[in-house]
Amino acid sequence: MSGGTLRALSPDGRLLLLTRFTRLFAYGALSVVLVLYLTALGIGTRQIGVLLTLTLVGDTVVSLWLSTRADRIGRRRMLIVGATLMAAAGAAFAVTRNFLVLLVAGTIGVISPSGNEVGPFLPIEQAALAHVVPSDRRTGVFAWYTLTGAFATALGSLGAGVLSQAVHYRGVIILYAALGIVLALAFTRLSTAAEVPAPQASTFLGVARSRAVVLRLAALFALDSFAGGFVVQSFAAYWFFLRFGVDPATLGAIFFGANLLAGFSALVASRLAARFGLIRTMVFTHLPSNVLLILVPLMPTLPLAVAVLFARFSISQMDVPTRQSYLMSVVSPEERSAAGGITGVARTIGAGLAPIFAGLLFSQPSLINVPFFIAGTLKIVYDLLLYRGFGRSAPNPA
After folding, report:
1. 52 exposed, middle or buried (CB, 10 Å; 0-12, 13-18, 19+)?
2. DSSP 11-33
3. Residue 4 predicted with pLDDT over 80
4. Could you tell me if 32 and 234 are in contact, meaning their C-beta atoms sit under 8 angstroms apart?
């Protein structure tokens, strides 16, 4: 999509890019310092693994409830509720060190330990974007949407490193809560043009005729996210700290660069999809990135490890806008929020199960490299299954 087309987006389209930026900046900042903050509070890595897992499980329930009702109750209303839960969770993490309170706040609220999307925002925003842009520009719009999020995550990672040096980790947590409030206020500006008439027929979790394809995709996306959950950005940052003694400011710079590369790769993905199709672009860019993921812990020095990480991020996110566009193309408009919610919840469940195992592995110094091997291998399995199931028989719009 050209810059001119980007400028020609409707006010709702521009607003959704802004809310995406605000949210992912907060997520990126939090992910760099969250594990370091919790360990500074005296919480062990095994407990942290449990906390992160339950946090993501709680986000799953919140996302499923809000996103599957958004097309009936109102997309704007559900987005405001999600932002309020994000602000509340951040405030709770900032004011207490009681593990049980943190557990409740993380489970009920919206907290992103990975730097990636959690909660109801992504599926509802995707559905709204698909509703306000022409179908032939959908992949391009989602590419800019992905770039916006990656750039925001990168800036958040960099900002967290600088801010944590100045006001320690709690300042980043307070910023996260404040941005949740900003997000809620921004969503009040979303117009009715982003809404869809409420479905009349009774449906299961908001989907009817597209249920089969949605459930199949959800199962595959869950496997991919389960694999990624072993190396969420919080744990990846912690790995660099343990292996090479990297300080928070340098960690922020590393993940700033990594996320920036990931974001720009999304623009390339939209061009590849137009030529080769959405599924082929998803699979054939994702496979080599997973090989690189396995190679990261095998690097003997920090510069080499960072170089392989950067190479991995430069292609790892090309499947994101193509995946989003593909999903929106195979479901009807009144099922898009629900379809995005169901597949998003599947991804969150997958990602939520992994950190508890990753925490156990990180608690053993001799096993800190194993999460990378598990993640890369399972992601390769996902790519092969996706291509086998959808690469030839399913519609493949670009």
Report:
1. buried
2. HHHHHHHHHHHHHHHHHHHHHHH
3. no
4. yes
Q: CA torsion sign, 242 to 244 to 245 to 246?
A: negative
Backbone angles phi, psi at 332, to 5 degrees: -75, 155
Are 340 and 122 a contacting pair, CB within 8 Å? yes
pLDDT digit string, tens, across residues 108-157: 888 887 777 888 898 899 889 888 888 778 888 888 888 888 788 888 88
Phi and psi for 207 in degrees, rounded to 5? -125, 145
| CA distance to 135, 143, 260, 345, 347, per residue, from 330 (Å) | 12, 18, 30, 18, 18
**CA atoms of 224 and 102, how far apart (whole Å):** 27
Please answer whether residues 299 and 287 qualify as being in contact, where contact means their C-beta atoms are separated by less than 8 angstroms.
no
**Tokens for 396?**
């493949």
C-beta separation of 54 from 106 below 8 A: yes
- Report how far residue 101's alpha carbon sits from residue 260's, in angstroms, rounded to the nearest whole number: 35
The per-type count for the chain, helices as H runs and strands as E runs, is 15, 0
As a whole number of angstroms, the distance between CA 81 and CA 72 comes to 15
Structural domains of the chain sorted by starting position, each given as residue range(s) with its CATH number in brackets: 10-195+205-390 (1.20.1250.20)
pLDDT at 331: 85
**Which of left, alpha, beta for 301 (phi over 0: left; psi -120 to 50: alpha)?**
beta
Amino acid making up residue 287 = L
At what angle are helices 45-73 and 121-132 packed, to 10 degrees?
40
Instruction: Give the integer Cα–Cα distance in Å for 62 and 110.
Output: 8
Residue 1 has pLDDT above 80, yes or no: no
* Cβ–Cβ under 8 Å, residues 64 and 79: no
